């Protein structure tokens, strides 16, 4: 009789690791994903993409990151000045956030007082007084480097997103760090997908609205007869049917009102980053770490992840016997004669 053929495992085990769960840390751990950046485009000084500022709204979960733009390489200086001026003027008007983090601008028009707008406009007119009738953009183009240093040029790109925190019944993300034959897992507080934000376009819209409002005030009420007017249609639903809309407006207002918390960014190659990595992402004393024990056995786990057994007839099917129940049944029946 020929010997049995050798069974070749097409997926052999190549390594085994002891798994450790790190204790909860006081700091929050966020996983930032960059869907629009290639893996080799790291946020580093070497790639001319070292982050300028990182900020977060902890309650609403919005996060933004500013990256520098090379204004002397593949850069439209005219648009850079146009958008930079819009951002600067919006900031002077008290606008601190755009998009969803700023409540979509729904109430910003009433939050910006006429006094602030007039003050900003008067200051701009005073600064441009020595430029005669020359277009301010053309004047800034002539002294572009000076304008860039003084904040008149959009020289940064903003990436942003909202934190997705773990929910009951949904996957939980962990950070894994290897050390020899050990795998250390740290729970992730939330995941953020950082995508390009177009705040400069919102700023242009804001400055255009302010300019139109100023023109109407100068022309007087008598010249506004034929101007188009925006009408906001609202419909109240009885029995609290409009509660969804009320809650949405309150949520957007809270997003706008919450201030930004500025964070200090450390590159992944810095000494601070390495120190935090070794201190927070590893169990410091593995021999004294408690042994993890599962609260369910194999059969209970299989039952928990299996699809429910539904019978269209409505009859309840009996669950299959577990391995333990099968052994007990065989012992009670005894050996066959």
TrEMBL record:
<dbReference type="GO" id="GO:0042797">
    <property type="term" value="P:tRNA transcription by RNA polymerase III"/>
</dbReference>
<dbReference type="GO" id="GO:0005666">
    <property type="term" value="C:RNA polymerase III complex"/>
</dbReference>
<feature type="compositionally biased region" description="Basic and acidic residues">
    <location>
        <begin position="320"/>
        <end position="330"/>
    </location>
</feature>
<protein>
    <recommendedName>
        <fullName>DNA-directed RNA polymerase III subunit Rpc5</fullName>
    </recommendedName>
</protein>
<feature type="region of interest" description="Disordered">
    <location>
        <begin position="206"/>
        <end position="225"/>
    </location>
</feature>
<dbReference type="Pfam" id="PF04801">
    <property type="entry name" value="RPC5"/>
</dbReference>
<dbReference type="InterPro" id="IPR006886">
    <property type="entry name" value="RNA_pol_III_Rpc5"/>
</dbReference>
<feature type="region of interest" description="Disordered">
    <location>
        <begin position="304"/>
        <end position="337"/>
    </location>
</feature>
């Amino acid at each position: 009789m020929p010997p049995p053929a050798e069974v070749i495992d097409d997926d052999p085990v190549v390594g085994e690791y002891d798994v450790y769960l790190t204790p909860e840390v006081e700091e929050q751990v966020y996983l930032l994903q960059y869907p629009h950046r290639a893996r080799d485009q790291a946020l580093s000084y070497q790639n001319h993409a070292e982050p300028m500022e990182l900020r977060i709204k902890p309650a609403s979960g919005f996060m933004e990151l500013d990256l520098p733009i090379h204004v002397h390489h593949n850069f439209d200086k005219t648009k850079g000045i146009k958008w930079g001026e819009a951002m600067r003027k919006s900031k002077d008007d008290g606008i601190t956030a755009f998009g969803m983090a700023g409540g979509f601008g729904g109430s910003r028009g009433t939050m910006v007082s006429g006094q602030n707008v007039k003050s900003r406009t008067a200051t701009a007119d005073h600064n441009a007084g020595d430029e005669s009738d020359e277009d301010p953009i053309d004047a800034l183009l002539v002294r572009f480097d000076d304008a860039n240093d003084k904040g008149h040029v959009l020289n940064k790109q903003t990436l942003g997103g909202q934190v997705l925190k773990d929910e009951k019944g949904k996957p939980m993300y962990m950070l894994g760090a290897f050390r020899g034959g050990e795998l250390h897992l740290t729970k992730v507080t939330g995941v953020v997908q950082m995508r390009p934000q177009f705040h400069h376009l919102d700023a242009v819209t804001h400055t255009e609205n302010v300019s139109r409002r100023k023109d109407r005030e100068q022309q007087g009420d008598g010249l506004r007869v034929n101007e188009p007017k925006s009408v906001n249609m609202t419909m109240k639903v009885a029995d609290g049917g409009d509660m969804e809309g009320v809650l949405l407006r309150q949520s957007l207002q809270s997003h706008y009102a919450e201030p930004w918390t500025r964070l200090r960014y450390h590159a992944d190659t810095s000494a601070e980053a390495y120190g935090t990595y070794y201190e927070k992402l590893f169990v410091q004393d593995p021999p004294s770490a408690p042994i993890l024990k599962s609260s369910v056995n194999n059969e209970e786990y299989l039952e928990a992840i299996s699809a429910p057994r539904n019978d269209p007839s409505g009859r309840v099917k009996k669950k299959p016997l577990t391995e333990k129940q099968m052994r007990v049944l065989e012992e009670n029946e005894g050996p066959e004669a």
